[in-house]
Amino acid sequence: MLNKLKYFSVFGNPIKHTLSPKIHSLFSKQTKIPCVYTAVKISLNEFDKKINFFFNTIGDGANITLPFKEQAYHISDVLTNRAKLSKSVNTLKKMEDGKILGDNTDGIGLLYDLNRLNFLQNSNKILLIGAGGAAKGILPSISLKENKIFIFNRTYLRAKKLEKEFSYLGDIKAITFEDLLNIKIDLIIHATSSYIKGEKLILPSSLIHKNIYCYDISYVKNNRFTPFLNWSKELGAINLSDGKGMLISQAAYSFLLWNDVLPDIDSTLLKI
Fold first, then answer.
1. Catalytic residue among 69, 87, 136, 244
2. Is 69 a catalytic residue?
3. Same domain flag for 232 and 126
4. Fewer CB atoms < 10 Å away: N or C end of the chain?
5. Could you tell me if 51 and 92 are in contact, meaning their C-beta atoms sit under 8 angstroms apart?
6. Statement to judge: residues 143 and 99 lie in one domain
7. What's the CATH code of the domain at 193?
8. Nearest alpha-carbon partner for 146 in 119, 129, 180, 169
C-alpha cells in the first residue's frame, strides 16, 4: 500500500534563510516517506489565522521558528512534556481527532549536537545569551547534570523573568553586563536573533579564553560563521560551531513526531 502524501511547512519571519525544506526533502528520500515541505513567511499579526488555515486545509505538521514559538505554545490543544517544560513550541502535529499537538524538539536537537561535538565535556558553567522563545526551548536540556546556567540578555528584566520561570530546573541565574566582566565560562550558547535583525550584540572580550566552547544556535548559508562566532574566533576561541547540526537534529525529531521514523542525522549533516 502506497504511503499517503503528507504536507508540512515551516512558518516564521524572516524565513528566506531557512534550510528546512532541503533537510526534510533529504529525510523524505532517505525514509521513502513521501511529503511536501514548504517555507512560509507570515506577518507578525497573522500567526493564528495562517496556522489554523493550514491545518484546516492540507496541513499534517508544522515547524515554527522566530518569532512565533511562544505563540505556538499558546495555540496548542495538547502539549508534550518537552513543550510543557520549555513553555515554547517549535513543532505542531495534527492529530487524528483534529486537535493540534505542540512539541519542542529544540532542546533534544541541541543536546544531540553538543554531544556530537563533545562540547559538554567540561561545560559545568554555561552562559546562555538570549531570553526569547529559542532560549526557553533549550533551557530544560542544558540544565541537565550539574550545569550552572547564567542567562544574559540585553534587557536584564527578561533574563530575570526566565530565571524565575525556570529556577525549579536547577542552578540558573540572570546576570548583568558587569557580571560578565568577572566570570569564567566553559560554554557559551548564543540564542538571540540579533544578526538576523541586523542588531549588534555587545559582549566583553574577557569572556573568551582558549579553552572555551562557543556555540551559536543560528547558522549562515555557505558555511560562513555568524557574527558571534567570528567575534569569538578573532579573540582566540578554537572550539566553535554554528547551529546547523542542531537544525538537522531538531528537524529529525520533528520528522519522528510526524512519521514515527527517526531519520539518520549524521549522514544528513554531510549533505547540508
1. 69
2. yes
3. yes
4. N
5. yes
6. no
7. 3.40.50.720
8. 169
